[in-house]
Amino acid sequence: MSILSLLTETSSLPAQYTTLSTEELKKRARAAREKLQDRVYILGHHYQKDEVIQFADATGDSLQLSQIAAEQTAETIIFCGVHFMAETADILTSPDQNVILPDMRAGCSMADMATISQTERAWTHLQELFDDTILPLTYVNSTAAIKSFVGKYGGATVTSSNAHKMVKWAFTQKQRLLFLPDQHLGRNTAADLGIPLEHMAIWDPIANRLEALCALEDVQVILWKGHCSVHMNFLPKHVENLRKNEPDRRILVHPECTHEVVTASDDNGSTSYIIDQINQAPDGSKWAIGTEMNLVNRLIADNPHLDIVSLNPFMCPCLTMNRIDLPHLTWVLEELVEGNVVNPIKVDAETAEYSKIALERMWKHLDV
């Protein structure tokens, strides 16, 4: 089911919550949380606002939180993140548990860049070009439908922290791989593993065509033409300016940034990696971080002994992630107190089955 369809079938925030003060919202959220006790468990993604994170029982990246959700016995999981994350939580929790996304408008532009109809059409075309030589991999930042597709055709999910290991595994299975939906994570990972950039082709789902700089037989990686709208805002000029004006500032970015930015930086890694590096940093060290602004601001506030700035001084938070706010969280909590489950996320059985296969393949090969 599309996000548009879900929006037409789910509830919107009642107007009364938009008129309450922050203090009143906090008071009501705490009261509802107290009444619900262990019937509810709140997950907060690292990119969430502080006003939401303060109520989270656990924080982490998307896959960490879904794994935590799978371990919970609470009747209801409230996922303060975006739609694909709540889908993954629903896939990994039991059928009698509810997963709530407080605001159904909290989508992900990257995940929306690969629809199932586009992917099936691309797969048919690519099979005609390359025969049965391609294994599909998808970043966990994708819809359940795409995870299901990948699971059905022998592939697996990947995260930004395990992409290198999973790409290596993919090449033990097939001669080529299709990497969905983020071309930049795919390109950066493959380049790190020694695959020449000219041996990476791009599949354009809008034009429905393959863009290659080499002969077809030399193509090793097919990158889906998708990207993270947040990380695309970090540009080579930002790195150049820091190198010129503050050469002692270490530049650390997320691999969803472009290849040009990643290669010009000092280091790159997943959200968890970035947090770990800052936690281990020596007092007084200077950092420029290229990732979502809510997280950067939190790292600045939590580490006054460090000098931390955003790589892009004019960066703004992830707009879709910020759809989840204190009014929406308070609303869904108070509705649960009244016995109402609003904005539930439910993945159909077949999609969930193959999606879980894709996720389990990743976990299996990470343990080998």
Describe the structure.
The chain has 368 residues and is of the alpha/beta class. The protein has three domains: 3-107 and 320-347, Rossmann fold; 111-228, Rossmann fold (3-Layer(aba) Sandwich), CATH 3.40.50; 231-310, 3-Layer(aba) Sandwich (Rossmann fold), CATH 3.40.50. It is 42% helix and 16% strand. It has 15 helices and 14 strands. The protein has helices at 3-9, 22-36, 50-53, 62-70, 83-92, 116-130, 144-152, 163-173, 183-192, 236-245, 259-264, 271-279, 293-302, 326-337, 349-366; strands at residues 40-45, 58-60, 76-80, 98-100, 134-139, 156-158, 176-180, 200-204, 209-211, 221-224, 250-253, 267-268, 286-290, 307-310. Strands 6-5-7-10-8-9 form a six-stranded mixed beta sheet, with helices on both faces. Strand 8 and strand 9 (209-211) form a beta hairpin. The longest helix is centred in the last third of the chain and has 18 residues, at 349-366.
